[in-house]
Design a protein that fits this description.
With 367 residues, the chain is α/β, with parallel strands linked by helices. The chain has twelve helices and 13 strands. Strands 2-8-7-6-5-3-4 form a seven-stranded mixed beta sheet, with helices on both faces. A four-stranded antiparallel beta sheet has the order 9-10-13-12, with helices on one face.
Length: 367
């Protein structure tokens, strides 16, 4: 395989994420993938109502939240483990399973690599090709999963490409993992923002796959990034007990637990979000292509595109930042080079501001 040339903007491969508004003068943050509706009003009300309870210790078992999640997914409560965000479980799973060899899709969420690197695990990559729209070849991926593969992380929908594969394809991979004894960690943190999440989520079938562990979070779905709340679903109760035993007590705060319960009670919020996201995704995809960017089809609330005529490394990122707009530079994702950017789908006004800003920048460069 041809070795990819490393250019200036790829030299710093430290894990970076979107949302760094603390070190950048930002008016519009398109680097994060949060629900553009913002935190549900019911969550805000519940937080105000329970503020006096924040002074007590949280329930370490998260019983009320776990029951609410069990009702939401129609599964047994003892198959659920709440966590301090999905990242809490990513690191916990690696520390608990202790894989010697892991398989990752490239490009994919960078936190998987970071967690595996800390455990001195050999990482193999299944490359997604831009010529194919970064779509995974499920059959090829299954052939790459061997008895030596202890763990595979699979993000559906994928971050940063935004593409989702069907439940049937996911279960094909899960079946392969069962045959090889490989743990499959399926990251569904964006799944509920898909137009039809029921066609993609593996939660209804997870009890039939003991080696399947599903990651979920309130972070993106309910725009609750600062509260840090996620959860895992597994048919392996023993693994859930080991994960729980290996972490610090009281890791999920009182406000996070209250917010999670309140969010699950809001039945209309996600439907409204999906309608907003669908319209915004269509608009941004069309406008970005009109301006000449290479845009990759997305099923979710963010879009990956490539600026092939960029005058210099990170030019578009820096030009937008000067105008108070933060993009997600994707050059630090393994498998992506300079010129790849990701933008989240926001509200109509914000999306139009982004398009207008990009048009101004392109006019100035003559591209």
């Amino acid at each position: 395989m041809k070795k990819q040339q490393i250019t200036t903007c790829q030299q710093d491969k430290r894990v970076r994420h979107g949302g760094d508004i603390y070190r950048n003068p930002v008016r519009y943050d398109f680097s994060i993938n949060l629900n553009p509706l913002g935190m549900p009003e019911g969550v805000k009300r519940r937080l105000k109502e329970t503020v006096e309870d924040w002074g007590r210790y949280p329930d370490p078992q998260c019983e009320a939240l776990t029951r609410a999640l069990a009702d939401y997914h129609q599964i047994a409560a003892d198959r659920i483990l709440c966590s301090n965000g999905a990242a809490d479980l990513i690191y916990g799973l690696v520390q608990t399973i202790k894989p010697r060899q892991a398989l990752l899709l490239s490009p994919g969420f960078a936190e998987y690599e970071q967690a595996l690197a800390r455990s001195d695990c050999e990482i193999r990559y299944s490359r997604l090709c831009p010529e194919n729209g970064f779509l995974p070849d499920v059959q090829q991926l299954c052939e790459q999963i061997t008895p030596d593969t202890d763990l595979i992380f699979f993000c559906n929908p994928n971050n940063p490409t935004g593409h989702a594969i069907s439940r049937e394809q996911i279960l094909q991979i899960a079946k392969c993992c069962e045959e090889t004894g490989t743990w499959m960690v399926l990251d569904e943190c964006f799944c509920d923002l898909l137009d039809h999440p029921e066609a993609y989520s593996a939660v209804p079938e997870a009890e039939h796959f003991p080696k399947l562990f599903i990651l979920r979070a309130f972070t993106k779905t309910y725009a609750m990034a600062g509260l840090r709340l996620g959860y895992g679903i597994s048919a392996d109760r023993g693994l859930l007990r080991r994960l729980s035993a290996g972490r610090q007590p009281w890791s999920i705060s009182v406000p996070a637990q209250e917010a999670g319960c309140a969010a699950l009670r809001d039945s209309m919020y996600l439907n409204e979000a999906r309608e907003l996201l669908k319209a915004g995704r269509v608009y941004l995809t069309r406008e970005l292509r009109r301006m000449g960017f290479r845009v990759y089809d997305s099923d979710i609330n963010f879009i990956l595109f490539f600026y092939g005529q960029e005058p210099g490394p990170l030019y578009l990122y820096e030009a937008c930042l000067k105008r108070g707009i933060l993009l997600r530079d994707c050059s630090n994702f393994t498998g992506l080079a300079c010129g790849y950017y990701r933008v989240c789908v926001s509200g109509q006004k914000e999306n139009q501001i982004l398009v207008h800003t990009l048009e101004q920048i392109l006019e100035e460069t003559g591209k």
